[in-house]
């Protein structure tokens, strides 16, 4: 990695599951480097959704290294998800033609509810399937599958957790970690965001900020997707032996109404 930059750059791992991200710093300049990131990153940068892409370099072996601005800032706190800018940025993402076109070029096809349901089921082992709240939630997903179909597919982030939202020191908002990006019903993002972070009394004002009309169909789709998201999260934590986190999300199923 060091041979990509001058020798006086300090390069340290940025963590993460892949081990392919690094921080590089020299004097007052900082970069975020990533190995073999998707070409989707360039469009996200051009749209102002992630920090600016500074350069891209292709190695002799075909690997591609990207460098982004490493801005001074921090992750969102859960209570900050009520900021107006969150709804506006999510709307911008969902309406972006360049993002949708690029994901299509990368071979992404619409991620439909039946596909998500199949993944939910495959991620739940026999022990999890024996839990009553999981059984009831799964029955809800199966019963309502035909009723949550939606014709308008958009680019969806897929994990709008507050840890993926960044606030710069100049109050700019970014949404990062796009490895799970897909083309789907926008309720796939809206449902988990509202259920997890926005008090129900504030949903009407959030819909207005986003620019969407509330309806019974939207409410059903939101509930369907947050239920599916929760079941996927439970399966993930069980698989990684994170039992405390798993128990939290099993308990969360009772709050979805």
UniProtKB/TrEMBL annotation:
Coiled coil: none annotated. InterPro entries: Aminoglycoside_PTrfase (IPR002575), CcrZ_PhaseVar_Mediator (IPR052077), Kinase-like_dom_sf (IPR011009). Residues 40-214 form the Aminoglycoside phosphotransferase domain. It comes from the Bacteria. Pfam families: APH (PF01636). PANTHER family: CELL CYCLE REGULATOR CCRZ, PHOSPHOTRANSFERASE YTMP-RELATED. This is Phosphotransferase.
């Amino acid at each position: 990695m060091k041979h990509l930059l001058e020798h006086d750059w300090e390069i340290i791992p940025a963590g993460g599951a892949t081990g392919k991200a690094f921080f590089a710093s020299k004097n007052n300049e900082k970069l975020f480097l990533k190995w073999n990131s998707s070409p989707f990153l360039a469009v996200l940068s051009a749209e102002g959704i992630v920090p600016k892409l500074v350069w891209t370099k292709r190695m002799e072996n075909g690997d591609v290294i990207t460098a982004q601005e490493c801005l001074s800032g921090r992750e969102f706190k859960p209570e900050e998800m009520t900021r107006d800018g969150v709804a506006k940025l999510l709307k911008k993402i969902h309406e972006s033609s360049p993002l949708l076109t690029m994901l299509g070029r990368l071979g992404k096809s619409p991620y439909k509810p039946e596909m998500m349901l199949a993944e939910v089921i495959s991620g739940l082992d026999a022990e999890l399937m024996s839990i009553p709240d999981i059984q009831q939630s799964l029955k809800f997903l199966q019963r309502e599958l035909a009723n949550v179909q939606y014709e308008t597919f958009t680019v969806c982030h897929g994990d709008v957790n507050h840890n993926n939202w960044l606030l710069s020191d100049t109050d700019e908002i970014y949404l990062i970690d796009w490895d799970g990006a897909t083309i789907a019903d926008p309720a796939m993002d809206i449902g988990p965001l509202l259920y997890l972070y926005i008090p129900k009394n504030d949903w009407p004002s959030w819909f207005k900020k986003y620019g969407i009309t509330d309806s019974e169909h939207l409410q059903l789709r939101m509930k369907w997707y947050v239920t599916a998201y929760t079941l996927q999260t439970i399966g993930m934590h069980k698989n990684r032996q994170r039992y405390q986190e798993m128990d939290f999300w099993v308990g969360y199923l009772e709050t979805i109404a």
